[in-house]
Design a protein that fits this description.
This protein is an alpha+beta fold. The protein contains 11 helices and 6 strands. The chain is globular and about 45 Å long.
Length: 216
Amino acid sequence: MTSLIALRQYGGDSRAQTLWSISDRLRFLTHLMSVPRMCGIPLAIASVPRRVLSDTFPDLVERARWHHLRAFGDCMAKADAHIRQNGHPQEVATIVAEHSEKPERQAMRAAMDVYREGFRLKSEYHTPGIADRKRGYSTGNLEFRISRIRDTIHFVLKGKEPLVDVADACAFGFRAWLRGDKFGSQYLSAIGLPETQMAAELWRHSGGCNCYSPPR
């Protein structure tokens, strides 16, 4: 549904050009993107610039797929950290992802194994946050690990899991903002991420990862 209604020039299905007006598609997408904010659901996001080389999965997959896996793993790590810091002592999570081809599923499971073992980000890949730059040094947590996420990834068919559709919509909106697309600012506002803060955190320049709890 999300890919059908998204504007064609930003990756949507051409059938939406005749089924929906631009204003209707924009309204639908922003409503879908606002679900986490309206329901108080934390949102883990990650962006890996193309210039970042593969040092975490050196021989696992080709470079283009590696960037996607790195973002996937970083999201898991930030979500896991959010659970450890804010969840119940016995709280655990399950990854639900859209069903994909066997090589992609195997790569995602391998990425989960890497993050379960844990690693520390190289300092040259770390971009200091707003508070870090004010104080003159970084206190950022460069450790990436998962310990509160179950080992098994639950794969579902496209359109069969509403929360996956919501996550896809939010990813679509955030990616549009990163690229500077026409409706990027409206998408970011719908998701509940403050554009001034996101710009100050240098997402467009350096990428990054974080887990946000947007205000309702």
